[in-house]
Amino acid sequence: MRLLRAFYTTVAIAATAFAFSASASAADLTVTAFGGSWEQAYRKCFVQPFEKATGKSVDVILGTPVQWVNQIAANPQKPPIDVIVGSVEGAKMARDRGLLDKLTPAEVPNMAELNPKLVAYGGGYGFPITYGAYGLMYSTKAVPNPPKSWQEFVEGTVKGQWKAALPSVSYVANAAGLIALFTKIYGGSYDNIQPALDQVKRMQASGNVTFYSDPNSPLMALRSGDIDMAMYFDGRAWAEHDANNPDIGYLNPAPGAVGYPNMAQKVKNGSPLGLQFMNALASAEGQACFANAMQYAASNINVKYVPKVQPRIATEERSILVSFDDIAAVSPQWVETWNKQIGK
Question: Is the overall model pTM greater than 0.85, yes or no?
Fold first, then answer.
């Protein structure tokens, strides 16, 4: 109990310190971003053009969606963040805690150009900028004939035709990208994931599969030859192909790969300037810049892709769109069942 109390005290102090720091910032707007190449493209495609067009300054902060939501909840009347761009899971947390403004094309005109199926992920509180597919990244040298379906992937792994990596229960893609996908393919339901876990257990028992929780692990394992393929995000796989490893290939086995959206949301009681920034995030011009840099599918239907990127972009025909709200409702039970049968 003493350790738990100390933990919460530390979190409260950190959140308060962050809130003071952000509110004391001289910037006109504070927004969030993921790090690495994602942040670089975000600044180039959205932040810098916005600052040039409006004459306003934007502070970009890095971190995790859970951290951002907790920081806003610590000071909801004067939030330290004006616009959150993060994961679909974090977006639901913010929505459930009443920390967001509802948005329509009346406030954000460029929303009228967004794919309504993707906008639905926000439940009226924001929209995806892009989404990526969670399919198979593989070595074209080690696997010249990659599996055309997820059933072929499972059977080939069991037979030892390749060494594969799967998302562990602690990685963000485990629930929707693996369990929900295999439930769709092998039967069962969100209340009965046993058919999906049985296939994972078969691969695990073969000794030809490993589990990862760090997104960089499959990239390093593929370079070293420790694995031949991994369930992975398309944009990250193509980025690795272009930057470090031209022997990497990527495909969405039939009947498709789960599509993962990011989410942009306007924080309640945040700066009104956030609405203008949200409009920039929804714009075809900004999303075209960002989607071509990150090689993810844009939510704006008017975005054009460069010839190299176009064939790599996830499409609705090759993607499986799941309800992350429904998955979030059963995730605690899934984690418990996974830990009992597969391990942490």
Answer: no
